[in-house]
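Lab notes, practical 5.
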Amino acid sequence: MSSINQGGQPGSTSPPETTTRSVQHKGRTLEVRQLPICDLERIGRFRTAGYGGSVSDALHGLGVDDTVFADRFKPLRQGMQLVGRALPVKLHSMVGGVNTPEEQAEQERRWEAEGGHPQKRLMRAVAAAEDGTVLCFDCGGDMQPAHFGEMSCQLAYAHGCRGMLLAGNCRDTQYVLQMPDFPMYTFGTRPNAFGGWIITEVDRPIFLPGHLTHYVRVMPGDFIFGDNDGVQLIPGDLVDEVLLRVEATFAKENEQRKALAEGMPIDEVYRVFGVL
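Output from the prediction step:
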């Protein structure tokens, strides 16, 4: 069910052209708003108005309390904001020695029949998606090698990727940190790419370690939001509703900051704003 909400009318809190539809989420029917914008605009608006607490509060208000990722995910530096549409990727360790020339040739023939090297297929998926993806890697618990490096980040960025959530290791971080807009949250760093891993699935559901739950399921089309406070998943059908609630919080809290800075008496603060 969808209806046009004519924003700007008395009592309306929705911007013009916002549509409302009913969605089913974990057995509940929710009325959520949607915006006629692209993901790069969503990213910009989340980065302007959003922070971990406001995103969490908006999700909680919608009954979503199980999408906080584990604190093992750390930004390469403080101040990074990881925002964008999840593109899940599954890796698997490759156990064994170096392939013989015959085995390598057979592997390359098999890859060619499947559409090319697995990483090439990953990059094609990035290029085919709307700009604003976040690569989300399930590495199967493998922490031996580095799973992604700077040149791969550059290639993904050139085709619209805007960051990475990596349940494994990265490398080349001194150069990744020089990229203008490629935030990365990872379990760690290692210099070695050898050790063996292969991409097995792209744009299929994965599980990543959770904070309040053992795992957080990442579906294609979900949204990722990360900042200094940690990383969260926003279910795909709730993204715009969460964004609008975050922006409302941003506007309200800016008014509160101004009043507090001007010395509003404590009793008046709690009368007007409630518990902060």
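Observations recorded by the TA: The chain has a mean pLDDT of 90. The longest helix spans residues 239-261.
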